[in-house]
Each structure stands twice: as structure tokens, then as C-alpha cells.
Amino acid sequence: MKKIHTLGFGLLLLSACQYLPQQSQEQPAGLNKFTDPQLQQIYTLQDERKTADLLPFLQHGKHTYRQEAALAFASVQDTLAIPQLLSLLTDTSTIVRSAAAYALGQVGDKKAENALIRHIEHEARPQVQAEMLEALGKVATPVGVDFLANFKPRTPEATAGQTWGLYRAGSRQQFSPKSLAVGAELLAEQNPFEARLGAAHFLARSPKADITPHRQQLITTATSDPEAEVRMAAAQALGKVRAIDKGRFLSGIAQSDPDYRVRLSAIRSMTGLEYNEIKTALLAGLQDKNINTAVATSEFLLANPQGVNITDMQQVLTKIQDARVRSNVIWVILKNSPARDFLSERYKSYFENATNPYDKAQFLKALSGNYNNYNYIADAMFAAKEPVIATTGMDALLLMRTQPDFPKAMEADFAAIFKKAVGSGDVALVGMGAGAIRDPKLNLRSYYNDYGFLAQAQQKLQLPRDMETNIELQRTLDYLNNKESVAPENPFTHPIDWTLVATISTNQQVELQTEKGLIVLELFVEDAPGSVANFVELTKKNFFDGLYFHRVVPNFVAQGGDKRGDGWGSSEYSIRSEFAPLHYREGYVGMASAGKDTESNQWFITHSPAPHLDGRYTIFAKVVEGMGVVHQLKIGDKINYVKLRAPMQ
């Protein structure tokens, strides 16, 4: 969050005299770098978001402290630091220049654009130049986009930096025909992997970009690039291409690629195509050997039910065992069948007879394919003892309410259900109900005489535990009262436990034993000491033992760590976000949050590169063993235990 300050830099130095860094002796030997008390101090000031006290470290005589102070501002993100960070772009130390560039990108203010362009042209170190190019993309206006598109890199590192700069700009809807053409050129197989990966994501994730002119290069990349992660992103990009043979080449990829992530990316790119054109690929996808592909295919059908043949769905339903896939297929059957009321009675038995709460929740959602089931779903939602059933019941009602053919005659009943949810006291139902009331597409404002029930619900929350629900309620109140919404600030409640950090080695590993097999994580204590200490503290308390993976988004993340088991459970405290120059690649572990500085106990593991999460969600670990297990996880898989491994010798 950007803070407004009126003090000049000279006054800041005076006010921070008690924090003025001194020259230190060499760092003592220890398990990690935080045996150095001044590094502890820098990270503490970062954790406390104390800009004035951090600024003097940017001028410290020791380059390590300048570097760490610059990186601190990547998390603090205060525009007041921009002038000094810009001055560090000419620092004598390579690591300081690189850290300053990363921090400027994280602050994200276009005031840094011109300076970054000047320094990129004169920077001799490829790695620093690459960091500057990516940072430029995070702040670029059309001027910066033009520079990135015309930049002529001389090293593989700079080429990758240019590509990721284009990606960062494109994700902010800053692109041009020239930059898109450069991205397509960088897909060519002779370019470094890192450049091809960035280029594929740039073309896939630039909203509203017309990439049809680059159709052939994308097809070539999606079918022949040696790296699955590049093929995956290229297949995703093909969804934005306009072509009469689109169904043919996407179906071919979906049925032939050896990596499930590419197969499901091709299926997701089929939106807008006629069912009969892609039928064979979809039926194969529902029975794919990897559960993530089957789930993604069923979710595609749920999102695109028009024209789906009911007989096909009923036949394939008998061959599917997974509850989530079955649920989505049932939803499509109910949505399209003229006998939906008759079939609903049969499918209600799936819900009533299921013993696993996650399966039960999925079968309840399946019933939302028939509007006439809304009272049944609402009654089950409010009566549910397991949070995941109640939360999924609300998901089901929201899915109903947002359908384009939703019956107007039911609007008042749904408005009453959402109001009851807000008054239920269940944090998930309260938050989701508030979000529905705020949705301008649903036009619910006229159904409520006053909004006191929202304020009453807000007063019952316990902060910071219920911050996500608090944010939803406040946004809804602001919307209904025609006010500009400002998210409530989370109170600072959980300082870094430096005594615990001192016991954690830089190669500390954690065993995550699931019912699917063992996953081993390596913790990044030097990049995210607060998040790692929090995770270790919870692990030592056996907090995660017996919990479940409550959220699995195919080819994105598997998420756990929630006592409620539905994604709405938090601890009695929150910790601060910690952003370091790390990137979400396959198997990286991040802290889940409802926004900056709201993390507590939930975490996720990525299936694939997820560059849109970089610098927004704390990275605190990576998978070093068991990635195959991660790729097989599904919702409701149990975490048997989490424990620290003995330190490696």
C-alpha cells in the first residue's frame, strides 16, 4: 500500500537517527544470514512497514545492507522510496542495482519509467539488465512498451528480461502490434527456454490482444516446442486466435500431448466452439488418466453447456468415478435435459448417500443445473454441519443466479437467501452473500429496504481472523452507499519470531505426507523469514496434521492449511507479505491471502509457472521431492502430517 508522507528526506534522516545503521563486523557464522542483527533490523522495519527508518539503509556503506533495504521496499511498496531507489541504479554493486530495479517494479509507479530506460541502455551486466527490463514492464506506458519492443538484447539473460518485460506490460494491457510481433518471434525454438516461456505467457495473458496474425507460430510452438511449459502457455494463447480450423488443431493437441497440462490448456482454449466439433476431445478429456485434465474438461462443459449431447454425458457418467467430475457432468445433464425434474430426484440420492463431505458438497452443487432445486440446495446449505458443504451450496446458488437464463420470478427469493446468508454468522456465507449483493450484474439493491443487516454482520466479526469477510462486507456497504471503496487495513499483529528463525537452516526441509504420497519442501528462510517462521511454528504445533487440500485448480495450484476445510478459515492473527525476486514455477509454495498483508495459515503449491502471482503472493518454499504426487492431488485429499526433517549435514 502506498503511503502519503510530507516530510523531506533530510527530516526523515533526523527522525530515524535511532535506526541509523552503523558499520558492522563480518556476519557471524550461523544457520542463516539473520545471525547479523542489522539484517534482522532491516527485515523488522520491512515487516512493520516503517519507510522513514528504512531509508537510511539505502545509503549504507556496506552494499549488503543497501541491497537488503532496497529489497525491503519491494514489500513495503512506498512511493517515497522512489528517488533513492532510482539513485541506486548507478550503484557500484551489481546486487544493489538489481535489487533497486526489482523494488522499483514492485512499487509500480510510472515515474520510474524514464530512468529505467536510460539505465537499461548503459547497464553492462546482463543479469541486472534483465531485472531492469522486467521492472520496466511493470511500470511501462506506451513509451516503455515501444522501448521494449525495439530493444536489441545481446545476451540470453537480456533476451529473457525483454520477454518478461513485455509480459509484465501486456498483463497491464500495455502492448502494441510491434510488441506482439516481437513476442511471436521469441517463440522460435532457437531462442532460450526462458525467453520462449515468457513470450508464450505474454501472448496468452495480454487481455484483448489480437494475436490471430501469429496463429501459425503459436501452433508450431504448441505442438513441437521441447518444453511442456512452453507448449502449455502457447496452447492457452491459441484460445484467443480466430480460425475456422481451431477445433481441429486444439483437439489434436488435447488428445496427443504427453503432458496433462498441455492437454487441459488446449481444452480450455476451445471456448466458443461447437460441441460436435470438439466432442471426441471432450469425451476423451473426461476420462483422462490425469485427474486434473478430467476435472478441467468437466469444468469446461459446465461453463459451456450449450449444445452438449445429453446421451453422450449419460453414457460417460457411468465410466467416471471422481465425484467432482461426475458432479459437473450431472450439472450439464440437468441443464440441458427436458426431464430435469425427474432426473433431479435420482441425483439427489448421490448427495444424500455420500459420506465424504467433499463428495457430498460436489453433488449438492450438481443439483444447481436445475433451477427448481434452489430451495433444496438452500435448505441443505443452512443445515450443513461441515463448512465445505455450506460453502459449496452457496457456490451452487451463485452459479444458478449468474446464469444468463435465470428466471426473473426467482430473483426475490434469491435476494432473501443472500440476506439470510449475511446474517448466518458463518464467515464464508457472510462474505459470499455480501459479494453477491454487491454484484452489479445481479441488480439486488432494490430488494433491500435498508442495509443495516450488513453493518450488523460486520460488527460480529473477529479481526484479523475474519479479514476476508470484513473486506467483502465493507466493499458491499461502500457500493450500496455509492462510496469509493477502500479495503480495510489489516492490523499488524504477528511480528517475526527471530528466536525461531535462528533455528532454521537455509536448506531446511519439510515432509508433507499426503494420502497420495510424500511431498518434500525446502524452506526459503532467507527470502521470507516471517512466513517461514510462521509455517514452522504451525508445523511444530501439528496444526496441518489431518487437514485436507480444500482447493485444487487444475494446472494452477493445490491449496491446503485451512482448519475449516473450505478456504475461509484463518488464524487469530495475520502476517505480512514478503516479496523477493523469486518466480512462481512448477512446485513453488506460496502463502494464500485475501490481499496484501493478510496471510496466516493457508498455502498453495503451483502445478506450473504462474507468473501472474509473482510479487503478489509470498513465495516461501519449493517442492524438492514428490512433484508427481502434487500433480495427482484432488480436492479432499488428506494431509496425514507435516513435520520438519532433521537438518541436512
From TrEMBL:
Keyword terms: Isomerase, Rotamase
Keyword match Transferase: no
Domain called PPIase cyclophilin-type: residue spans: 517-649
Superkingdom of source: Bacteria
SUPFAM superfamilies assigned to the protein according to its UniProt record, in alphabetical order: ARM repeat, Cyclophilin-like
CDD domains recorded: cyclophilin
Gene Ontology MF: a single term: peptidyl-prolyl cis-trans isomerase activity
One Pfam family of this chain: Pro_isomerase
Protein name: peptidylprolyl isomerase
InterPro entries for the chain: ARM-like, ARM-type_fold, Cyclophilin-like_dom_sf, Cyclophilin-type_PPIase_CS, Cyclophilin-type_PPIase_dom, Cyclophilin_A-like, HEAT_type_2, PBS_lyase_HEAT
